[in-house]
Predict the 3D structure of the following.
Amino acid sequence: MEAHAAAAQHHGPPIAHQSSRVNASVLGMFLFIASEIMLFGAFFTAYFFVRVVNGIAWPPPQFNLPVFVAGVNTAILVTSSFTMHWALTSIKRGNRIGLQAGLLLTFLMGLVFLLTQAREYSRVGFAPHDGAFGTIFYCLTGLHGAHVFVGLSILLFMTIRSFRGHFSADHHHGVEIAGIYWHFVDVMWIVVYTTIYIL
Amino acid sequence: MTATALPIQHEPLEHHGPPAPPRGPRRLLYPGFLRAAWMAALFFGIGCAIVVLCRWWGGWHPIWKGEIIVLVGGLVAAPIGFLSGIGSFDYWARYAIGAPTVPEDHSGHGAYSWRDYLRVNTDHKVIGMQYLTTTIFFFLAGGLLAMLVRAELAKPGMQFFNNQTYNGLFSVHASLMIFLFVIPAFAGLANFVVPLMLGAPDMAFPRLNALSFWLLPIAGIMMLSSFFVPGMGVQWAGASSIMTALNFLVTIITMRAPGMTFWRMPLLVWANFTTSLLVVIATPFIAGSQFFVMFDRVMHTSFFDTAGGGYPLGYQHIFWFYSHPAVYIMMLPGFGIASEVISAMSRKPIFGYRLMALSLLAILVLGFSVWAHHMFVSGMAPWLRVPMMITTLLIAVPTGVKVFSWLATMWEGKIDFSTPMLWALGFVSMFVIGGLSGIYLGAVPIDIHVSDTYFVVAHIHYVLFGGSLFTIFAGIYYWFPKMTGRMYSEKLGKLHFWLTFIGFNATFFPMHLIGVEGMPRRVSDYDPRFAHWNMFISIASPVAGNDARMAGVLAAARVQLRRDSADRRRPVRIRRSGRAPRHSRRCPRARAHRGTGGGRLMRLRLTVVR
């Protein structure tokens, strides 16, 4: 009888048989990230053609890259990955305050990163149409910035949900998946920073 | 028979229908085309406002720049507005702000009238039908463009179009056929069939599934209108196919029925598994290449502009790094369909099941290592030629394994030459011809001779028309009874096959000859010595291209059988667990043997509904 009542409560298609230990949404996020890596791969291929095959000066003598400011920015983004992890481990232990603080901090640091990046664009002294160096610089950092923006939107939604009391020790899937994406954005920035600014 | 499926059927009928749209002005807030219309306009306005604000803030002049407005407002913001209006994001929007989500009630599942196909519907069968009808529409549009191309080419000299329009005609023909017909038609068939074969209740992410369908009409309209305005059709279609592929992968990995191990999956599922891997990995590259071109045009960047230090050949490398795997994206699901049809219609299990699956994986891996064989004459580094030739010729091995396995499946089988089988046999024979000319083209010396001639056109049509298209038709005819509960006319179906088969060969075989003699492709005018063959091809092509026939055959099936069943007065309806084909003497039977474990499940479902 109980089962029948549960069946009446259940909406949508019948529950699927779980044929893998991996959770469907986590797997979906990993596949999405694989696809994102390939998108970055296309941009890095363009970078390779311009910088290695064509061998242009990097950066061209008349331009300067703000390596130090971007380095501080990198540190901010890396720290935000740790606060994200803190948020996730907190909610796994049922600590909602830790979750809220962690998500909020992560969101704010991501925002600071994005605003610094925009500020850098307005002061860097060259534009996308100033030759291949400008093209690659703006398109790679811009593509990454777009990903930060998407990640920030997801973080914002999760923060709102956490403040409305949605997650618990047993149900924190949204945070976990948002976290995976945020870590991806972070690691990707380290690659972009290394190839564009340092090397 | 079994009690498990009964509760679904015994629910009161009024629970099934979607909630009626509210009357009065509140109707504007109800997800549907009305809301889509005003939200698309609103988002277009928001997009324009963002552009104007950014340009004003950055001090760029002019503040109102047409190209950027079209790009951001028209090609990005307005489609998102349309999708939000039609209701693709409703659930996610509620989830995102932490509001109570509307439970996924049965209104989102199944179709109870034709109107249910015109809204966001999360049922995989409805989405499959939506995909198929949409793709057939764009297929006819693409076919019409091909007819216009042939009309121009009937005689040497300029007939109807100028060079610019002619370039547009064949480019849009190709992109429509690839992105709006072959790839989504396979996705549609797989959407319908794969969850049933796996014993899964639906796809893993039904809402994502619905979203990826609704991206398609947007992409198609952008491609069709690209004669007049710049478009982003490829990017939207690419996004759609990535979402679908991701969905298939997660469904296949996490939602198989108990006992359905990987090595028991039907080959169609295997084919879609490998195809989806290809899509997820390769498709971002074409998005990248199209974005680069767009940036070069609109923002005057220098990806491919030598003056600014760009690398023009990079476009071809990035483009073909997707577009070569893309030919397998357009072929592997067809291999799956052919395997199903040939084995069922020969009344034998597929020969070499495990090797068939492994050869799919081999094609997947090799497919990424051959892209530069499209570029032998492009001026790329010469040392790349021979490695690419070797990997290209290596692909003939797994493909050969598949062809011989199909032949061995038919060997000593009790072959039923009904319409789907004819299409599948047509596919095997035509694909072998296309594969052989592929070996010619893969070999560097011959390729240098016939590069950019009609030999290439013949080859691509033998593998895509004779290959992909024939298998799509095989699949549509094979599952038509399962999808609609009605049987097509076997006579008309066979007529359709033979007309297409003869017309196809009459159109494309002569292209080999004029290609070897040196007629270049992609030009609207040619040397008068090719005039006779071109006139012949132009006369033959409507026989191949007029596939409005198929729509006709299927429509005839509906009308005729509707009359048959008029006495029962049952509404046309697709149930959650499908509907048994009632009128078919020869409806394809679900099979239960190793390699097609889904067959047993499918038959179980059929009996329950009956």
User: Anything to note?
Assistant: Chain A touches chain B through 51 residues (CB under 8 Å). Residues 131-163 of chain A form the longest helix (33 residues). The helical segments of chain A are 2-9, 24-53, 67-92, 96-123, 131-163, 173-198.
